[in-house]
From TrEMBL:
Organism (species): Pseudomonas cuatrocienegasensis
Domain of life: Bacteria
Stored PANTHER family: AMINOBENZOATE/ANTHRANILATE SYNTHASE, AMINODEOXYCHORISMATE SYNTHASE COMPONENT 1
Ranges for domain Chorismate-utilising enzyme C-terminal: 183-436
Gene3D superfamilies assigned to the protein according to its UniProt record, in alphabetical order: Anthranilate synthase
EC annotation from Swiss-Prot or TrEMBL: 2.6.1.85
Protein name, UniProt field: aminodeoxychorismate synthase
SUPFAM superfamilies (UniProt xref): ADC synthase (SSF56322)
Alphabetized UniProt keyword annotations: Transferase
Anthranilate synthase component I N-terminal domain ranges (all copies): 13-135
Amino acid sequence: MPSCHVHPLPYRCDPAAYFDRVRHAPGAVLLDAGRPAALRGRFDILSAWPQRTLTPLPHESGPAFLQRLRQGLAELGPAQAPTASELPFLGGLIGYLGYDFGRRLEQMPEQAQDDLHLPDAQFGLYAWALITDHLHSCSQLMFHPALPANERERLIRLFEAPTEAADAEFRLQAPFAADIDAPAYRRAIERIQAYIQAGDCYQVNFAQRFSARYQGDPWVAYGLLRQACPTPFAGFQALADGGAILSLSPERFLRVAQGQVETRPIKGTRPRDADSERDAAQASALLASLKDRSENLMIVDLLRNDLGRSCRTGSVKVPELFALESYPNVHHLVSAVTGELAPDKDALDLIAGSFPGGSITGAPKIRAMQIIDELEPTRRALYCGSLLYLDVRGEMDSSIAIRSLLARDGRISCWGGGGIVADSNWQAEYQESITKVQVLLQTLERTCSP
């Protein structure tokens, strides 16, 4: 099997200096570990100039589109890593699945308005990537064997050239505004609780959207957000119309490494406090909360079922339950579910059986998604979808696209929500939906013109 070529570059802890050189290129994409401030992520992966771009056709089913993704990987061809290399990505697919890609996997009503018109998915097929390994403090260019030698040389020259200062700006034209008000939020929560009492569901994730008009370069906005809220599953994806996806997600969706599967659902949140004693009390209260532990356990059970569709019978385990993870603005309750892919299944089968993630839908999943479509006035677009890579070996990592924004047509949108159960207090849930994204909204609102 042919091996990938690698070319060493100076180590950069922050990927911005390298990504600045390609951010205006077609298909520019960055999967960002959030270093140096976020410590859980290991790799940054960036690329541009894909060999192909794949989006779903108007009436194409989810399985049919996933099969086209398989065909794209097959066209690029197999490859292996150089000896002793730990490269996470050897060429393949990088892109996003929007939440509404789930409509191509399951029958859903169509009540929520699609006013952002984001394609349900978009992937580039990339034959090179610049990969930074923060564990070993090294940056290197990875070239799939299919990439022509002259293109390898062009990319080496590009990234070895002196850095040029970027000249760009970003500003909001007005503060963010919510799409629904507090009374409407209350009515939605009460409707969800009526469904729960009627036995339709146990939990529903309900979200509200915040929007503002903007001018300038979304990459500048991403830099501001990254500084304010570094997270290990962050990412930036340029869109063909000049817009972009900006994600500051703390949550892994699905990872596949040598056939081993892991998902890490987040369910349970408390705000951080500047006072260390009060902050510790918030964390302790979250760990002790029966309500949050119950919500988390519901989603763990849902994900065990989802993974079981593609994993070897008996391999699905829960090695971590109710762990605390803390970020600049919130504490989270996080669990881990693992498994081993069945011999006749691959990472795209895993996606088909698990998307969208249970932590951002509810339980049971399909009924919860139907209720979401009824009660949220607009479609979620990117929100609660996934940013991911899948390489020619079948290695994959993906996020849940929470704490994420969509910049498009001069409008930037951000969503915040939470899981609603029978004893949820609507005022507390309303405040939590704001708390989760407040640092993102306030960071960009500082750019507003006086």
